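FIELD: query
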Amino acid sequence: MGNLQIFYCIEDQYPYILCDLGGGTADIVTQKKHITESGYTFEELYPPVGGDYGANNINAYFKDRVLKKLFGEKCYNDVMDNIITLYHDWIELEKKIEEFKTSFYNTSQLISSFQIDCDLFSDYTESKVEELIKNFNTQNPNWKLTLNRKWKIFFPYQIIFDLMQELMTNIIDLILIIEKTVDVKSLIFTGGASLSPILVDMIQNCGLEIFNYVKSHNPEVAIAYGAVLFSYDHNIISPRKAKYTFGIKSCKEWKGKYANGGIKKKYEIDNSDMCDNLFSKFITRYDNLRPDKEIIKSYFMMESKINIELYKTELDDVTYCDEKNENGELKVFKFGEFIIDVGDEFDIDQRKAIVKMKMGGTFITATAIYCKTGKNAKITCLYE
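FIELD: result
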């Protein structure tokens, strides 16, 4: 959420996209503002996105695409295997990578480089640092490294620029998708990375049709304000849009209903044919959900200890938890599990259990209750 100055710029009832681009994470929400007697509320129009494209990825890409390529995969992995003994040196390296990223502001710096001491790799390679740099430069002519002395290496800002552009291109692609789905009138940027002139240049030349561009002049205050406001009243954003279809793995009486593939999952309990590994849906993707509203379903426990497995999918309807697409990739993914164990209290004639699921701000809470005794188990999982 942004600060008051930003939201005074947004007309009531008109959808907007809010991009919170911090130094590490990216959060993109699509909402519209409603005036109420006590102030205002925000209706979510599209599930939150952006989690895969935060600036922390620049640090990860740098290690994976630069350091690992420079020193070789074996050397890099040997360092990681000895990370406990190299802890302090590794932390210093992490700090320098973060400084490298955050010290880049505009394209005029592309003629400059940033020095990082890579001495912690020296004991895990038989090659001379000059040879490593030469090989890297041959394979990566756009990212030419130079050596200062010993293992102190200059890395060009072109690296950060290219990685930053890649992330911002992904973010802009998400915004373009949302724009095709929702009639957005304003695009709002906040967070530390929103001050980057590189982002502004890319936005102005990406073909967006949004006419109102708003940028927070004080992103730290904007984020703090939003956090306090939401913690005070979770219902200020209502309803939420489910990003995925959520459910649990279950079994049901077969009866030929699941003949299309289900027969492979058929087994017998209490003289009844059952179909296992079914996806029992609780929440459908894009459903409007009120925060903390519970969805409740009843089940029959087959034994005294049962493992409750939580699954999610980007599809609206699937039948099995192990369904695959034409490329052999799973359509459904497990993101949590827990066990309800009633032990000696299990009664074959009264084995009914209920499972409750509710969505919070950024998480799913699931609870299983054995109806006879009230014994329960609960798990809370991030659904991102």
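FIELD: remark
Residues 1-9 have pLDDT under 50 and may be disordered.
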